[in-house]
Design a protein that fits this description.
By secondary structure, this protein is mainly α. The protein is about 45% helix and about 10% strand. The protein has helices at about 5-35, 75-80, 100-110, 130-135, 145-150, 155-160, 190-210, 215-230, 235-250, 270-280, 305-310, 335-345; strands spanning about 40, 45-50, 90-95, 100, 115-120, 180-185, 320, 330. Strand 7 (about 320) and strand 8 form a beta hairpin. The protein is elongated, with a radius of gyration of 29 Å.
């Protein structure tokens, strides 16, 4: 090849590189310009900045309805290189105004708003209707708002973060009962649900369920939700857990009265009044008339109930009965023994 041809090829390659660079620069400038003018919130909102957040991670705080992030994280980093922030980002709550553009956002992130901290407490035997009623009475939500959130497609957006949600069809399984300190001015169903899921992950899943398959996790929590309402004593829970497991695995009816109310959207207190009127119904929850598990858990069990299901006390007994005054439990190996216990208690 002649020297002239080599020079021509090199020149053409150089021109191509220049053109590619120019096109890339135009493309980048267009995206960057679009970013600075992007409206990050269309309505007034409050966001939470945690102590581990930085300006470079705020893209996680702004998402479209489908869960996709509004702010490109790579362009955000470039923006911060070109526009370094002189003030460190503080943890707290921040009010973001209506139609705030990306470049306006940083001014609004300079001073967190003061927020009233509150405590909410959810009891171990509560179901999602109890939780919703409690939050409504505290004037934190409108009626049914928490139930709607727990049962909607939002669960799809949470599966990547929480492996135990892989096959769940509702958040009811994993809303861990506990006391929570929260900021009132940023309270919403998602904010609370994330707190409860994080708590379940730390206190239950990481300790005793992380080695289980997603199917096993759902079975354990479902059975534990029945156990939570059937047995109050932590010392007796492992024995009752084994009886419930045996009935389930042998395709018996589990036979727990407490399962009959859930499909009627009743709180735990309302269930006490209406239980007898629903006892013979045939539906996806009533373990008095169906074999297998309820369609979903009937509440949110605490650690002791779930642990009892993971480590049950194996026994020959198939039946149990409580003295409703003292809550003393009576076990039986056969139905005849069980009937004798009934005669003794109800004579």
């Amino acid at each position: 090849m002649s020297e002239q041809k080599k020079q021509n090829i090199i020149f053409r390659l150089f021109k191509l590189i220049i053109w590619i660079g120019a096109i890339w620069a135009i493309f980048f400038y267009s995206k960057y310009s679009n970013l600075t003018d992007t409206i990050v919130v269309e309505e007034p909102t409050t966001i939470t900045i945690d102590k581990w957040d930085y300006y470079s991670t705020i893209h996680n705080k702004f998402k479209w309805e489908d869960g996709k992030e509004i702010i490109d994280k790579n362009l955000l980093k470039i923006y911060l290189k070109l526009n370094p922030q002189t003030q460190a980002l503080q943890a707290g709550s921040y009010k973001i105004k209506k139609d705030t553009k990306f470049w306006e956002l940083f001014e609004q992130l300079k001073k967190p708003v003061q927020s009233e901290e509150i405590t909410v407490q959810f009891l171990e035997w509560w179901n999602i209707f109890d939780i919703d009623e409690y939050l409504t009475n505290r004037e934190l939500i409108s009626e049914w708002a928490f139930i709607k959130y727990a049962r909607t497609d939002w669960i799809e957006n949470l599966r990547a973060k929480y492996p135990f949600l892989e096959k769940a069809i509702t958040l009811e399984w994993f809303l861990y009962p506990d006391s929570y300190r929260l900021f009132k001015n940023k309270f919403n169903p998602e904010y609370l649900a994330i707190k409860m899921l994080d708590n379940f992950e730390a206190k239950v899943y990481d300790k005793i369920l992380s080695t289980k398959s997603s199917t096993e996790v759902l079975e354990i929590v479902n059975l534990a939700s029945i156990l939570e309402k059937e047995e109050k004593s932590d010392s007796e829970k492992p024995t009752v857990a084994w009886i419930l497991q045996k009935r389930y695995k042998q395709n018996w009816m589990i036979g727990a009265d407490i399962t009959v109310c859930y499909p009627h959207n009743l709180t735990s207190e309302a269930c006490k009044m209406e239980l007898s009127s629903h006892i013979a119904e045939i539906n996806d929850y009533n373990t008095r008339t169906k074999t297998g598990l309820p369609k979903t858990p009937i509440g949110n069990p605490q650690f002791s109930s779930i642990e009892a299901m993971v480590n049950p006390n194996k026994t020959d007994n198939w039946f149990y009965l409580h003295n409703t005054n003292t809550w003393k439990i009576y076990y039986a190996k056969t139905n005849a023994e069980h009937e004798a216990n009934k005669q003794y208690l109800y004579r």
